[in-house]
Amino acid sequence: MVASRLPVPPGRLRRPGFGFWAVAFAFVTVIAFGTVPTPLYSLYRERDGFSAFMVTIVFAAYAIGSVLSLFLAGHVSDWHGRKRILVPAMLLEMAAAVVFLVWPALPGLLVARSLTGLGVGAFTATATAWLAELHAAHRPGGSSRRAQVVGTAANLGGFGVGTVVSGALAQWVGHPLTVPFVVFTVALTIAVLLVLAAPETRPALRPRPRYRPQRVSVPPHARRLFAAAATGMFVVFAALGLFTSLAPSYLAGTLHHPSVALAGAVTFLVFSSAVIAQVATARSSVHRVLLAGVGTVLVGLALLVGAVWLRTPSLAAFLAGGVVSGLGAGLLFRGTVGTVGALAPADSRAEALAGLFLAGYSGLTVPVVGLGLLERYTTPRFGLLMFAGVLILIVLATAPILLSRGENGADSAPPNSDRRPVHKADAPRALVIGM
Question: Cβ(59)–Cβ(235) under 8 Å?
Answer without folding.
Answer: no
